């Protein structure tokens, strides 16, 4: 049974079918077909929840390249299932939303094809056990993301955003591949499960830390961690359903997934802890700090996504500390961070998905996303306002929404980690809760900005493209569902916690699970008056204060001017690479045949001649030469002289006569070499060629003296002699060393086998008749080419198009 | 005989290479034609020269027929190549007004 593997490939299959449905079923929005795929997958995956939550894992394998140990192994544990449910669930909601968002006038067939491609690739990423297969799917998500960002490819900014995201994520992907190959060569397997099972054997290997850093680079670029976050705001040029799906709920979580998946391998190292926690916590701060000053709602959400991804990342870093200590009753406390991270991963997808959809609704309704033009939409779009408020308050970490729970757990984790006495946490650990708290204040501020600036304040209809109104109800279904989930998860968080996250935890901390540790946490909304509650209260108080006084401290952003940003640096590096490579390429790509021929011949001399000398193939055991008659001497010498004289021919007539001497000389040699057929053919062809040359010369200019410099001439001569010498040496070397018997004795039966006494004719017309037929085809094509080039002239109109 | 013909082929290859490196389209085309000749000679040589009678059944012990069949194909193909190159040169000259390869480079700013 391999239904799981099939589940990965169903979206790809759908991607192949959708263009046809789009073409032939014009009057039904093709999204209605597309939505069946994620819905079906979601139901199927949901049916596996009971098995997974009872501790099972499902493994199914289909052989792909067994000789290299590369098989498509679908592996489903709690972690994979959580992400797979997000991918299919949010996918279904996004498609439903997009049906109302995108009109049928747009090329939606392509849109859903890309979306299905992405969905399949993403399922492949989270369910693959084989690292190389994971890599293939990983790059497929980058490519489909590129295609989706550039969906409105007429816009320059879309194309540039797509290019940027592709360059950054694929560079990270390649470094990840190198990391995978290192891990694979250390542990002699491509299977992640087997690597995890034998991690003790590789952790002292010299490549262990480099492999870890390379894998992390892949994860950080994909999940838009500082300083690679710059692609995510530009990716917001994509249609809003894409932003909601790829660039907040699923694809950017692939990096986080990778970190989680490899925590049992690399976790427990100080480098891992500080890299993941440090980068995560700084990204959390930097994202939230920058989100506050955005004026475009989507850009605000983009920076907020960066920030939230950093927060999740840092929690996985903190959780990995437990692996350093090994299993004990004290160390289990650190796994709480990992639990919180997984929970927030789910929560973030719900509230951020809803918020993106809200932005799409607002944009769709009034035609702008600029908060300087928006305001006062509360009375006109009450439903949208409600969803936005729910999502924003959850994002800010307020009750009664799911974000509150995971934010509190986050604070708890940051406080606990300061008490750890290892990894230098005694001195530096205190920075973690402080930065986390400051970042949370900014999170509160931008969440407030999002709601207040859009929905409250004065309504400025004159600044809007269209008057505000609620959209079609269909467009609100998906954000309402997500908004409801935000509330449901607050009141019943343990549905997720017990069924998905606890099994996932057992996979992340296999050594703990083996000891029988209780890794699941029962989530409570109310902990009593603990430090984390005071932190939240502080966040609200300071957040409100900062929001009210924001026009006094906004000047702080002038400390980070646009011209010194990472974005500008990225653009500068890219421009430099293009310029420099153009200069270098133009140096040797001269658009002059002679130069290219020089490269080819020089390579020939060096490579063939070099190998010839290197392998000592230059002993010439000349075979017993056939005797040479005087006549033969005469012919051959005449040909040599004619050949050399061509070089000095002043007129084209001389050149053609000398060329004919060569051709007819070869005919005579063919006679002497017992080859009557060749001699006849050569004579006829040479005659025709001569005539052809003469005709052509009638139209072509006279040969004039080559105006090349002495230096060029001597280089040409040097190369020619070099080629001639290597050629002769190899030809002589070959003759003395016959390694095989001739196969030609077979053809001596030509009369019995093919009914022809002339063996050469029998070979051409019978034994190798296909060759001859194809040769005729070549002649035919050449004939058509000659005719076309002489007869067909470009039409006047097409000339004009060329000129433009 | 074999050695001598090999050297002849070597000389022809040298000449052909020199012609291929020249500026004039016509010289380049003649160069390709000469290169073909050299290749034919070397195929004949490698099989051995004058080791028997003509490759016809009943004429005694024949020479190797296979290289001859291959060369026969090659002669015809070589002719096709020469013909197409010549017409290409003709058409280029008609359209652009030069047969000098260094002048066919187009605008260096492109």
TrEMBL record, chain A:
Q: Which residues form a coiled coil?
A: none
Q: What keywords were assigned to this record?
A: Antiport, Cell membrane, Hydrogen ion transport, Ion transport, Membrane, Sodium, Sodium transport, Transmembrane, Transmembrane helix, Transport
Location of the MrpA C-terminal/MbhE domain: 715-791
Topology relative to the lipid bilayer, per the entry, is: Multi-pass membrane protein
Record keyword Cell cycle present:
no
Q: Name one molecular function that GO assigns to this entry.
A: antiporter activity
Family to which this protein belongs: Belongs to the CPA3 antiporters (TC 2.A.63) subunit A family.
What is the protein's name according to its record? Answer: Na(+)/H(+) antiporter subunit A
Organism, by scientific name, is: Oceanobacillus sojae
TrEMBL record, chain B:
Matching InterPro entries: CPA3_antiporter_subunitC, NUOK/Mnh_C1-like
A GO cellular component annotated for this chain's UniProt record is:
plasma membrane
Could you name the domain of life of the organism this protein comes from?
Answer: Bacteria
Q: Could you tell me where this protein is found in the cell?
A: Cell membrane
Keyword annotations for this protein? Cell membrane, Membrane, Transmembrane, Transmembrane helix
Q: Is Protease one of the keywords UniProt gives this record?
A: no
**Principal subcellular localisation of the protein:** membrane
For this protein, the parts annotated as crossing the membrane are 6-21, 28-49, 69-90
Q: How does it sit in the membrane?
A: Multi-pass membrane protein
Q: Name one Pfam family in it.
A: Oxidored_q2
Q: Which family does it belong to?
A: Belongs to the CPA3 antiporters (TC 2.A.63) subunit C family.
Q: What is this protein called?
A: Na(+)/H(+) antiporter subunit C1
Which gene is this protein's source? mnhC1
């Amino acid at each position: 049974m391999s239904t799981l593997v099939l589940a990965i490939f169903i979206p790809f299959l759908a991607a192949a079918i959708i263009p046809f449905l789009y073409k032939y079923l014009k009057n039904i929005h093709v999204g209605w077909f597309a939505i069946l795929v994620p819905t079906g997958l979601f139901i199927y995956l949901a049916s596996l929840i009971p098995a997974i939550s009872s501790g099972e894992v499902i493994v199914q394998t289909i052989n792909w390249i067994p000789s290299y140990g590369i098989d498509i192994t679908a592996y489903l544990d709690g972690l994979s299932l959580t992400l797979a449910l997000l991918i299919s669930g949010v996918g279904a909601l996004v498609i439903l939303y997009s049906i109302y968002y995108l009109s049928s006038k747009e090329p939606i067939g392509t849109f859903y094809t890309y979306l299905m491609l992405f969905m399949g690739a993403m399922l492949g990423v989270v369910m693959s056990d084989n690292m190389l297969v994971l890599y293939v799917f990983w790059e497929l998500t980058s490519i489909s993301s590129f295609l989706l960002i550039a969906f409105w490819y007429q816009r320059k900014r879309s194309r540039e955003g797509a290019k940027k995201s592709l360059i950054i994520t694929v560079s990270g992907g390649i470094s990840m591949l190198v990391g995978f190959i290192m891990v694979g060569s250390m542990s002699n397997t491509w299977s992640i499960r087997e690597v995890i099972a034998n991690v003790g054997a590789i952790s002292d290997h010299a490549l262990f830390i480099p492999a870890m850093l390379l894998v992390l680079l892949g994860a950080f670029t994909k999940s838009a961690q500082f300083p690679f976050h710059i692609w995510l705001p530009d990716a917001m040029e994509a249609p809003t359903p894409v932003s909601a799906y790829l660039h907040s709920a699923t694809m950017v979580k692939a990096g986080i997934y990778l970190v989680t998946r490899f925590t049992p391998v690399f976790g427990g190292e100080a480098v891992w802890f500080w890299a993941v926690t440090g980068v995560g916590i700084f990204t959390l701060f930097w994202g939230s700090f920058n989100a506050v000053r955005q004026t475009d709602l989507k850009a605000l959400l983009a920076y907020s996504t960066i920030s939230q991804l950093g927060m999740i990342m840092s929690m996985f870093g903190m959780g990995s500390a437990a692996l350093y200590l090994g299993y004990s009753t004290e160390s289990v406390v650190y796994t709480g961070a990992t639990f919180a991270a997984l929970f927030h991963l789910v929560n973030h997808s719900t509230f951020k998905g809803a918020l993106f959809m809200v932005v799409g609704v607002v944009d769709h309704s009034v035609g702008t996303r600029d908060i300087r033009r928006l305001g006062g939409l509360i009375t006109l779009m009450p439903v949208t306002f409600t969803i936005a408020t729910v999502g924003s308050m959850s994002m800010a970490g307020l009750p009664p929404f799911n974000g509150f729970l995971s934010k509190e757990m986050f604070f708890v984790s940051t406080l606990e980690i300061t008490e750890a006495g290892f990894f230098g946490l005694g001195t530096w650990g205190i920075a973690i809760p402080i930065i986390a708290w400051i970042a949370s204040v900014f999170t509160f501020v931008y969440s407030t900005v999002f709601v207040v600036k859009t929905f409250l304040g004065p309504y400025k209809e004159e600044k809007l493209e269209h008057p505000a109104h609620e959209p079609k109800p269909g467009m609100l279904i998906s954000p309402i569902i997500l908004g409801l989930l935000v509330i449901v998860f607050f009141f019943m968080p343990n549905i997720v916690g017990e069924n998905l996250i606890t099994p996932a935890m057992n996979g992340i901390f296999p050594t703990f699970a083996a000891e029988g540790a209780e890794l699941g946490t029962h989530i409570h909304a109310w902990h009593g008056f603990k430090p984390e509650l005071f932190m939240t209260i502080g966040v609200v108080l300071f957040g409100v204060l900062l929001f009210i006084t924001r026009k006094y401290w906004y000047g702080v952003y002038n400390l980070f001017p646009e011209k010194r940003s990472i974005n500008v640096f990225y653009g500068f590096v890219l421009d430099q690479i293009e310029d420099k490579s153009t200069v270098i390429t133009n140096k040797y790509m001269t658009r002059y045949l002679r130069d290219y021929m020089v490269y080819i011949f020089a390579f020939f001399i060096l490579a063939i001649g070099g190998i010839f000398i290197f392998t000592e193939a230059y002993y010439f055991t000349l075979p017993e030469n056939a005797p040479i008659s005087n006549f033969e001497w005469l012919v051959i010498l005449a040909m040599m002289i004619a050949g050399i004289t061509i070089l000095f021919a002043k007129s084209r007539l001389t050149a053609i006569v000398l060329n004919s001497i060569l051709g007819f000389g070869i005919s005579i040699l063919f006679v002497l070499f017992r080859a009557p057929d060749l001699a006849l053919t050569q004579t006829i062809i040479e005659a025709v060629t001569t005539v052809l040359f003469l005709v052509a010369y009638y139209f072509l200019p006279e040969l004039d003296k080559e105006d090349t410099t002495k230096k060029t001439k001597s280089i040409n001569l040097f190369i020619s002699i070099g080629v001639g010498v290597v050629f002769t040496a190899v030809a002589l070397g070959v003759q003395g060393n016959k390694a095989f018997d001739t196969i030609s004795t077979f053809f001596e039966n030509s009369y019995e086998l093919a009914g022809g006494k002339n063996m050469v004719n029998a070979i051409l017309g019978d034994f190798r008749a296909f060759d001859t037929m194809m040769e005729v085809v070549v002649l035919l094509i050449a004939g058509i080419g000659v005719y076309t080039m002489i007869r067909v002239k470009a039409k006047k109109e097409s000339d004009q198009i060329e000129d433009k | 005989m074999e050695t001598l013909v090999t050297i002849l082929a070597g000389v022809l290859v040298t000449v052909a290479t020199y012609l291929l490196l020249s500026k004039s389209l016509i010289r380049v085309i003649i160069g390709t034609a000469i290169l073909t000749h050299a290749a034919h000679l070397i195929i004949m040589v490698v099989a051995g020269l004058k080791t028997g009678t003509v490759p016809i059944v009943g004429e005694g012990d024949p020479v190797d027929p296979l290289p001859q069949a291959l060369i026969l194909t090659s002669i015809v193909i070589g002719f096709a190549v020469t013909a197409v190159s010549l017409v290409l040169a003709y058409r280029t000259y008609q359209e652009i007004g030069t047969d000098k390869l260094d002048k066919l480079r187009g605008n260096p700013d492109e």
